[in-house]
Design goal:
Blueprint: E1 9-11, E2 18-20, E3 22-25, H1 43-55, E4 60-62, H2 71-80, E5 90-95, E6 97-98, E7 109-110, H3 114-128, E8 133-138, H4 147-159, E9 163-169, H5 173-182, E10 187-189, H6 203-210, E11 213-216, H7 231-236, H8 253-263, H9 265-271, H10 275-284, E12 291-295, H11 299-305, H12 315-328
Parallel strand pairs: 3-4, 3-12, 4-5, 5-8, 8-9, 9-10, 10-11, 11-12
Antiparallel strand pairs: 1-2, 6-7
Length: 338
C-alpha cells in the first residue's frame, strides 16, 4: 500500500500519540438492521473505503462495539488484515452500550458497570484482532453506575496493557473532573459541528486547561453540512436510518441547517474545496481540537472531505461563517473560535 501523501498530525492531549487531523469514522460501515443504523452497507465497499483512507494518509480509525452490533469492528479487522503491521493505523473503539442479541432493533442499554466494561473490552479486542486498543472510550455516561467505579476499571485495563489510552465520549465537565481525580483523562469525544457547537462553551476549554485531547464527532452534522444533501433526501432515507428520527433533520431546524450549508458555498469556492471540507476544517480551527472523526462509506466520500486536514480558514472566513450562523439561527453554542 502506497501512502498518497502525508497529512498534518496533532498530538492527542499528553498521550504522545500523534493523529492525523482527520480520522476514519466507522459508524455507518456497521451496516443496517439495528436501531441506530445508516441503512444497508456492503462490506466490500467499507473495506475499500478504509484502505483508501489509509492510502490518502489517514492514521486512525474510530469505531465502537455497538456499531452494527459488533460488525463494524469485524469489518475494521478484515480491512486491516492485509496491511503490514508497521503500516497499520491506530484503532480507537468505544464501549458502554449493550444490545439484545435476540432483537436487533430493541433500544440500547447504557452500562458502565466494571464487570460489563471488562467483558466489552475483551470482546472488542477479539473482534478487532488486536492485543491492545490504542484508545478505549466510554460511549455515554451510565446514570446507574458511579463514574469512579467505571473509570477505576478503565485504569485497571490500562495497567494490564489491554488499553493504551483511556477516554470518554459525551461527558460533561462534572464527570470529567471526577475521572481526572483518579487518573488523567486522555481524550474526550464530543459532538461538534457548526450546528452543534455547545462543546466549545465549557468542555473543550476544560480539555485545553487539563491537557486532554479532543476528537470531535459528526463535524458535518451527519451529512447535513455536505454539498449534495437536500430536504428531499430525508424522505428517501432507508427505514432503518436513524436520521429519520433526528430533530436536526426535521423542520424548522432542517431549513435553517441547509441555509447555513448554502452560506458555505462561496467560502468553499474561494478555497477550491468542498462544503464538506469547509465544515470539517471549521471544527479543526478551534483551539484544543486534536482531530475530527469523519465517516465514509466509499472511497469517493473520503476524497470529498480529506482536504480539510490541510485547509486553514482565514479570520475573514471564520467571521463570515459566524455571521451565517447568526443570520440562519442554525444550532446552538459559540459561533467563532477565539
Amino acid at each position: 500500500m502506497s501512502v498518497h501523501a502525508l497529512l498534518p498530525t496533532r498530538e492527542l492531549g499528553t498521550t504522545g500519540i500523534r493523529i492525523t487531523a482527520v480520522g476514519f469514522g466507522a459508524w455507518a460501515i456497521g451496516g443496517g438492521d439495528w436501531s441506530f443504523a445508516w441503512g444497508a452497507q456492503e462490506d466490500a465497499d467499507s473495506i475499500a473505503a478504509i484502505r483508501h483512507a489509509l492510502d490518502r494518509g489517514i492514521n486512525w480509525i474510530d469505531t465502537a462495539a455497538v456499531y452494527g452490533l459488533g460488525h463494524s469492528e469485524e469489518v475494521v479487522r478484515n480491512a486491516l488484515a492485509a496491511v503490514p503491521l508497521n503500516e497499520r493505523p491506530l484503532v480507537f473503539t468505544k464501549g458502554g452500550l449493550l444490545w439484545d442479541e435476540k432483537d436487533r432493533m430493541k433500544p440500547l442499554v447504557r452500562s458502565l458497570k466494571p464487570e460489563s466494561i471488562r467483558r466489552e473490552c475483551e470482546a472488542s479486542l477479539s473482534r478487532l484482532g488486536v492485543e491492545r486498543i490504542d484508545l478505549y472510550q466510554f460511549h455515554w455516561p451510565d446514570p446507574d453506575t458511579a463514574v469512579e467505579d467505571s473509570w477505576g476499571e478503565m485504569i485497571r485495563l490500562i495497567e494490564e496493557g489491554k488499553i493504551r489510552a483511556g477516554g470518554v465520549s459525551n461527558y460533561d465537565v462534572g464527570l470529567l473532573q471526577r475521572c481526572e481525580r483518579l487518573r488523567h483523562v486522555d481524550a474526550l469525544q464530543p459532538p461538534f459541528s457548526m450546528i452543534k457547537r455547545d462543546a466549545a462553551e465549557v468542555e473543550i476549554p476544560w480539555c485545553v486547561d487539563h491537557g486532554t485531547g479532543v476528537i470531535v464527532y459528526s463535524p458535518m452534522q451527519s451529512g447535513l453540512l455536505t454539498d449534495s444533501f437536500d430536504a428531499g433526501r430525508v424522505a428517501q432515507l432507508p427505514s432503518d436510518d436513524w436520521r429519520q428520527r433526528a430533530e436536526e433533520f426535521q423542520e424548522p431546524r432542517l431549513g435553517r441547517n441547509l441555509a447555513l450549508r448554502d452560506a458555505l458555498r462561496p467560502i468553499a469556492k474561494r478555497h477550491g474545496a468542498t462544503v464538506s471540507a469547509i465544515a470539517v476544517a471549521w471544527t479543526l480551527a478551534w483551539p484544543g481540537v486534536s482531530g475530527a472523526i469523519v465517516g465514509a462509506r466509499s472511497p469517493a466520500q473520503i476524497d470529498g472531505w480529506i482536504d480539510a486536514a490541510r485547509l486553514t480558514l482565514t479570520p475573514a472566513d471564520l467571521a463570515e461563517i459566524a455571521e451565517a450562523i447568526k443570520s440562519t439561527a442554525a444550532g446552538t453554542g459559540p459561533q467563532q473560535p477565539g
